[in-house]
Write a structure and sequence with these properties.
single chain, 7 helices, mainly alpha, about 75% helix
Length: about 210
């Protein structure tokens, strides 16, 4: 899993952050997020086959844009905040859609939205905006688990795939992903306060 997270990194090469938005990974991130409304439309219409395919595409390109950013030396300042913001919004929208359509229980939304609301409020109070914290490995694994579990619940509703193990496996992955979300949120909260303390200390010594 860790090798997949860092895939595309070229050992011995220093990464230079680009100032431009116009990179291949950033365009993939934007296109990936545009797939979320399409997923919602298919799910509301109970067209679970197309909804499954769309969600799989959204989840797989989450890995692709990070890989290409490292492989093509196209890591950008915009991409470092755009990718996690797009991921977070996509997860919230997918979770809400699942609960509204009675595909998943309400704890899925609560365990995602409440920690995110706390993090956003904390960032606004401490930094008046984005604290610019690096994405943790736990956060990346959490996203992968959620984007693996959710499509399985959709697939189980496609005619011919109504197997109980698909629902059970999907639910188990969502549980693990939500647990990871809580752990990652606690880590980001701690990192934000540590960064705030360092900045206050530096300002006091200046």
């Amino acid at each position: 899993m860790i090798r997949l997270i860092g895939a595309g990194t070229r050992p011995g090469r220093e990464t230079t952050e680009l100032d431009t938005f116009w990179t291949v990974p950033n365009l993939i991130t934007v296109l990936r997020f545009f797939g979320v409304p399409l997923f919602v439309l298919f799910t509301v219409r109970e067209e679970y086959g197309p909804a499954f395919i769309t969600l799989v595409a959204v989840g797989s390109t989450d890995w692709v844009d990070g890989y290409l950013a490292r492989r093509l030396d196209q890591v950008s300042r915009v991409g470092k905040w755009l990718d996690p913001v797009a991921d977070r919004l996509a997860l919230i929208i997918v979770a809400v859609t699942f609960v509204v359509q009675d595909i998943a229980p309400s704890w899925l939304v609560l365990s995602i939205v409440i920690p995110d609301a706390v993090l956003i409020l904390n960032a606004l109070v401490l930094f008046r905006g984005n604290p610019n914290l690096p994405v943790s490995n736990i956060g990346k694994i959490r996203t992968a688990l959620l984007l693996l579990g959710a499509p399985l619940l959709l697939l189980q509703r496609v005619p011919g795939f109504d197997y109980g193990w698909l629902s059970a496996t999907g639910t188990a992955l969502l549980l693990l992903g939500c647990a990871g979300h809580l752990i990652a949120a606690a880590g980001y909260l701690r990192a934000a306060w540590q960064k705030y303390a360092r900045e206050r200390s530096a300002a006091g010594n200046a």
